[in-house]
Design goal:
Blueprint: H1 2-27, H2 34-53, H3 58-80, H4 91-144, H5 152-172, H6 176-204
Helix pairs in contact: 1-3, 1-5, 2-3, 2-4, 4-6, 5-6
Membrane topology: Multi-pass membrane protein
Subcellular location: Membrane
Transmembrane segments: 60-80, 92-112, 124-142, 151-171, 177-199
Length: 221
Amino acid sequence: MDLFLTLVSGVAWTVVYVEAIRVGLRDRTYAMPVAALALNFAWEATYAVGEFRAGVSPQGVVNVVWALADVVIIWTYLRYGRAELPGFVTRPLFAAWSVLVFGSGFAVQWLFLAHFGSHDATRYAAFLQNLLMSGLFIALYADRRGPRGQSLVIAVAKWLGTLAPTLLFGVVEDSPFILGLGVLCSVFDLAYIGLLVWGRRVAAVPAGREPADPEPAGLTP
């Protein structure tokens, strides 16, 4: 069961990254909220180094692959992200802001590591930033007034990729804290999936086309 849930999580998150790259390049934007992207990249880079210090491991290899995928997503953010901001944001200001966001991502991960130790820090940081990402995806939809730079594949894969470790660490390993965070992630993820489905249905209805009201009986000539 442990191996199965780990594989589900690994495959699902890989799908998230690959689809985020594809959608970002297609829509000429970035497909992951930048604060969550910064935390994700810092988590993967930090714990990839930690894993390899003890020797080559499957999780360490996965972390490196995910970190490399994040580098491509970061490139889409750097390439297209300034266009999402107000016009007064100059290139130097955008660069300074980006350094602050990504630097803060590493600082947060290292603070978790210093306080909780590697075993708990990997889990606590991952689920807390996952919950943040779930909420920020909904905010991204609202900010862009639609699904540009987003996809149902990303939403579903993220949900499954988080649900699997929620069951593993929250249920199998009996951690109420992680179980609670995982449940909250699922609530937000399912809400986001519902939002994307609803948006598709609304977009599929031609503008101005509404069902005609039936004429009252007895008024037809």
